[in-house]
């Protein structure tokens, strides 16, 4: 396979890299040559998390390096290394179990990432040579970087049409079928809610559908919110709230990347990927507060706030997904700021109508250090979405339980008996952190993949 540039194919010329935990620091230092041990002590290297140390040789040249790691199974524990170390090749010198080595590989790749479409980074990351390259970890890395690239790309270059092209290219590579319903064809084929939200933009709204896998395999539907830019509509966002709204297609990015990962690893699944892709624009034909919007499920929706548009497009996609009678429906959406207020930026909110499904996803997240937190589908809060003229409203005057009310709105469009889970993700890093550069981020994606693999691959 073609290795990413941050990995060295050969150990020739590579310097040793030591992975050191605090409880192994004394033994590691005792095994060093006296001059290197004295140097490590003089530098105050204590193997604390996210620390790094360049080791000198007797000739004063660079002879190796060490990184401090607390949890060897956490990919983020290694994310600082590629830019904390000199930009040259290193070879792993510390014996690690397979799971830890896979975490190192993934973390090194995540830590090496810089979004390069519009400018080149100031320096290259250090390279790493591993004694064996884990193809599953490599595919997971590619999926995470796919999310980052899609979310980081401004809407000028990642509108509904470009998002469609990404899915078409992926589908062609994996011999999947891709169908797109765009513009007024959405009305003709009964996707009125997607059309209503996206009709004001000069870029036509669309539903992107990818289908892959054998008919005999278990069927999983993946749905992603594809609001390529969100002005808030006529309920216009303030400037600071609109600044990063290129990321409002982060749910679509997750669903696309997960579908690509399943296909790349050829899991024995049949998948249907659905991405309602729109811009929530301001224009003469923008949908208005107070309007009643029809939906594919036949449920009428009063628009309380045009800035609660993601749930409006998702309700058509979820209803369509359920028509295929899949074993599971998983949806991903940058749906609410309320989830961030409740859980912060790093912890996606998981909702599910099936306890076993939720437990499997949560367990996978704990195991892979890709955490999420289950929140309740507290159905009494449907009172916050009541309407005097329609079956349901997309919002209401209360600011209470915003993430929960969004989730139970979505559940209204999932038929009884259909197993479903919804992940409310932030898909973003506000600031640079080791292994997590500012910008787009994959959250809960690796856990979703591991959940599906564990559930259907034994």
From TrEMBL:
GO annotation (BP), single: proteolysis
Source species, domain of life: Bacteria
Keywords in alphabetical order: Aminopeptidase, Hydrolase, Manganese, Protease
Record-annotated Cytosol aminopeptidase domain positions: 305-312
Recorded GO CC terms: cytoplasm
Transmembrane segments: none
CDD domains for this protein: Peptidase_M17 (cd00433)
One GO MF term: manganese ion binding
Matching Pfam families: Peptidase_M17, Peptidase_M17_N_1
InterPro entries: Leucine_aapep/pepB, Macro_dom-like, Peptidase_M17_C, Peptidase_M17_N_1
Entry similarity comment: Belongs to the peptidase M17 family.
Name of the protein in question: Leucyl aminopeptidase
Organism this protein belongs to: Vulcaniibacterium tengchongense
């Amino acid at each position: 396979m073609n290795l990413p540039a941050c990995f060295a194919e050969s150990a020739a010329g590579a310097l040793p890299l030591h992975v050191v935990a605090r409880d192994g620091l004394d033994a590691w230092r005792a095994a060093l040559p006296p001059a290197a041990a004295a140097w490590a002590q003089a530098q105050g290297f204590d193997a604390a998390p996210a620390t790094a140390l360049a080791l000198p040789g007797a000739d004063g040249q660079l002879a190796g390096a060490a990184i401090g790691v607390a949890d060897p199974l956490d990919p983020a524990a290694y994310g600082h290394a590629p830019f904390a170390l000199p930009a040259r090749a290193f070879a792993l010198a510390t014996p690690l179990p397979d799971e830890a080595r896979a975490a190192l590989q993934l973390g090194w790749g995540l830590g090496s990432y810089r979004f390069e479409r519009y400018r080149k980074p100031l320096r290259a990351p250090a390279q790493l040579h591993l004694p064996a390259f884990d193809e599953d970890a490599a595919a997971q890395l590619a999926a995470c970087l796919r999310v980052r690239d899609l979310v980081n790309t401004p809407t000028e270059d990642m509108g509904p049409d470009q998002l469609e092209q990404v899915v078409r290219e992926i589908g062609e590579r994996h011999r999947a079928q891709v169908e797109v319903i765009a513009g007024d064809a959405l009305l003709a084929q009964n996707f009125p809610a997607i059309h209503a939200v996206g009709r004001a933009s000069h870029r036509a709204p669309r539903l992107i559908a990818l289908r892959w896998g054998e008919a005999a395999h278990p069927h999983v539907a993946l749905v992603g919110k594809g609001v390529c830019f969100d002005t808030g509509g006529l309920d216009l966002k303030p400037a600071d709230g609109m600044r990063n709204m290129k990321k409002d297609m982060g749910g679509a990015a997750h669903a696309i990347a997960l579908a690509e990962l399943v296909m790349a690893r050829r899991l024995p699944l049949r998948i249907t990927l659905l991405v309602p892709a729109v811009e929530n624009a301001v224009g003469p034909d923008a949908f208005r507060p107070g309007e009643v919007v029809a939906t594919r499920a036949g449920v009428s929706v009063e628009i309380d706030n045009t800035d609660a548009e993601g749930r409006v497009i998702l309700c058509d996609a979820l209803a369509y997904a359920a028509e295929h009678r899949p074993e599971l429906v998983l949806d991903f959406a940058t749906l609410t700021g309320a989830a961030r207020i409740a859980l912060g930026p790093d912890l996606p909110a998981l909702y599910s109508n099936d306890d076993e499904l939720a437990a499997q996803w949560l367990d996978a997240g704990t195991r892979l250090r890709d955490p999420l937190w289950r929140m309740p589908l507290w159905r009494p809060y449907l009172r916050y979405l009541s309407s005097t003229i329609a079956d349901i409203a997309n919002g209401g005057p209360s600011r209470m339980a915003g993430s929960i009310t969004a989730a139970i709105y979505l559940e209204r469009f999932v038929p009884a008996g259909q197993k479903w889970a919804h992940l409310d993700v932030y898909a973003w890093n506000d600031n640079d952190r080791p292994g997590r550069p500012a910008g787009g981020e994959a959250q809960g994606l690796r856990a979703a993949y591991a959940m599906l693999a564990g559930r259907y691959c034994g």
